[in-house]
Write a structure and sequence with these properties.
Layout: H1 3-11, H2 15-37, H3 40-56
Helix pairs in contact: 1-2, 2-3
Length: about 70
């Protein structure tokens, strides 16, 4: 399934699709967070918080204004 479809289904509340949407970004987010924080546990917490914020504000995302990866 393409990213646009995953975003639309996620906005409708499909938890399986939000997991599929966010999964590819998890490893990169973890690596970036660790490089900034130099602490594995803090990096995990930061990524978890970022994913929660992404999930809770997904309705504000507009494909016409940004790519999901950069948003």
């Amino acid at each position: 399934m393409d990213e646009k479809s995953l975003i639309e289904k996620s906005k409708q509340g499909d938890n399986n699709d939000i997991n599929l949407l966010l999964k590819p970004y998890g490893i990169q987010a973890q690596q970036t967070s660790y490089l900034l924080l130099h602490d594995y546990a803090l990096a995990q917490d930061a990524v978890q918080e970022a994913l929660i914020q992404t999930h809770s504000s997904l309705n504000r995302f507009d494909l016409n204004k940004a790519a999901f990866k950069t948003w």
